[in-house]
Amino acid sequence: MKLSKLYRNIGLASLALMGISCGEGDPNSPGIEYMPDMYRSPSIEVYVDYENPSVSSVRVPVAGTIVFTSDEANEMYNYPYPYADSFEDYERAGLEVTSPIPMTEETVEEGKVIYGNFCLHCHGKSGQGDGGVPSNSEYPPPPAYDGNNLKNLPEGKMFHTITYGKGMMGSHASQLSKKDRWTVIQYVKYLQNGGKMVADVSNEASVEE
Prior knowledge:
This protein is mainly α. It has eight helices and no strands.
């Protein structure tokens, strides 16, 4: 008798729990959840706080923080760029900053790929400033790479411009790593010289002299 009473109480308790778990007639309601934290974690996920979706949960690194890399060949690209976004430092970069990447046929080809992805739409296929954006809009075309304004532009100024932007051109620091910036500059130098390697142009000038 006692055993049947126990079974009855268990059955009644089960029915009560089933009734509680139902969502008050709403077929889309999950009802009352047992330990909801098991279903929806209250922890803050990487890069997003669901309580404040407009605020990143990741702290900004301390100024001057250097990214660690075990690749010694690329460690130079992790050092902070020590020049500010100012006209004075733009001029300084032109005098003091030089590319750590040699201009070779391989680096020029690598730079051409990056140029096609990020620069061609404004600067044009051969760097004449006739890309699709200025050709099909009211934006003024950028000057030609082999024109008087840019033909002798130092690579340090190019890097500074890609990093911070200049004039109508915005910063590309978020799209291109430091290595990619220097690599695409090798192709820009190639276009500055009319589609020739700098060494070839220098040799031609020596022969003419």
